[in-house]
């Protein structure tokens, strides 16, 4: 049906179910489809030529915009909290307050750095952030077919937008829900806006912007892209959902996490740095078979 689903990186627990969802979505038509995606390590690469690629936060961490002392403090937070985030043995309820603690502290440290808005573009330019191979087709095709792309990210919205802007694909159908910086009148970071959006509350953060959801009511078929089990709740705000096809990127720690990904995502892409499979699914859904 879609030859790319036979790629070596593709794992499916129930291929038959995947075919059924796809057929049902094709029947409904691409004007009923919306794409909900995570950003870091989902739309962006996890690694390139054996080297880890930066997340939105990393772009800032590695930039000239923050002091070495600040970098050390952020690194210390990462070493403390990241192992907790990826620990599958801990229940979400237990991780939640700790994740909030992590990002609240990190944001406080960043605010002390008096980061200038006009230097963010340079920080992105000088970084090694890369969208996954095939990004041009994904973004352009969605735009051409007027399919909304909602990006939910626990990262930093200003940096995320700059990455897609510099890649030339920040089209009008793209909506971003993320943590945005608040600058004072002279363009210096003074705080982060609104509620903290983190890995486990992306959906709630999204629901606050119900205006966007009104226009999406006529799109009950969802293609969801993520790289963590926390991303699975991103579509919880979709009303009267008919079908959802969940594609998960399993970037690392493959052996210990593979089973939980297979149980949760319909299609699991193991260490696949491209958007080849999501693009093939998209072309199929829009009738470019």
List the helices and strands and how they pair.
Elements: E1 10-11, H1 15-28, E2 33-37, E3 47-48, E4 51-52, H2 56-61, H3 68-85, H4 92-111, H5 120-126, H6 135-144, E5 149-156, H7 157-166, E6 174-179, E7 181-183, E8 189-192, H8 202-207, H9 210-216, E9 221-226, E10 243-250, H10 254-264, E11 267-270, H11 276-285
Helix pairs in contact: 3-4, 5-7, 6-11
EC number: 3.1.3.5
GO molecular function, one term: magnesium ion binding
Keywords: Cytoplasm, Hydrolase, Magnesium, Metal-binding, Nucleotide metabolism, Nucleotide-binding
Would you kindly provide a written description of the structure presented here, covering whatever features stand out?
Monomer. InterPro entries: HAD-like_sf (IPR036412), HAD_sf (IPR023214), Pyrimidine_nucleotidase_eu (IPR006434). Belongs to the pyrimidine 5'-nucleotidase family. It is found in: Cytoplasm. This protein is α/β, with parallel strands linked by helices and 289 residues long. It is 41% helix and 17% strand. The protein has eleven helices and eleven strands. It has a seven-stranded mixed sheet with strand order 1-11-10-9-2-5-6, with helices on both faces. It is globular and about 55 Å long.
């Amino acid at each position: 049906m879609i030859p790319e689903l036979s790629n070596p990186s593709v794992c499916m627990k129930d291929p038959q179910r995947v075919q059924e969802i796809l057929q049902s979505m094709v029947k409904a038509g691409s004007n009923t489809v919306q794409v909900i995606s995570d950003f870091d390590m989902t739309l962006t690469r996890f690694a390139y030529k054996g080297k880890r690629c930066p997340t939105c936060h990393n772009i800032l961490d590695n930039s000239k915009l923050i002091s070495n002392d600040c970098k050390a403090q952020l690194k210390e937070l990462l070493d403390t909290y990241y192992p907790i985030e990826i620990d599958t043995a801990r229940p979400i309820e237990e991780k939640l307050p700790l994740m909030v603690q992590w990002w609240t502290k990190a944001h406080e440290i960043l605010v002390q750095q008096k980061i200038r808005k006009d230097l963010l573009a340079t920080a992105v330019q000088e970084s090694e952030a890369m969208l996954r191979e095939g990004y041009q087709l994904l973004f352009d095709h969605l735009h051409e077919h007027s399919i909304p792309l909602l990006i939910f990210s626990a990262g930093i919205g200003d940096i995320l937008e700059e990455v897609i802007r510099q890649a030339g694909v920040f089209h009008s159908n793209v909506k971003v829900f993320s943590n945005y910086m608040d600058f004072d009148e002279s363009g210096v970071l003074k705080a982060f806006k609104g509620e903290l959006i983190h890995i486990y509350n992306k959906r709630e953060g999204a629901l606050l912007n119900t205006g966007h959801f009104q226009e999406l009511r006529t799109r009950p078929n969802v293609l969801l892209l993520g790289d963590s089990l926390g991303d699975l709740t991103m579509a919880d705000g979709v009303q009267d959902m008919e079908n959802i096809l969940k594609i998960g990127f399993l970037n690392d720690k493959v052996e210990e996490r593979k089973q939980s990904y297979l149980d949760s995502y319909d299609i699991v892409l193991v260490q696949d740095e491209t958007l080849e499979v999501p693009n093939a699914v998209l072309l199929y859904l829009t009738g470019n078979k």
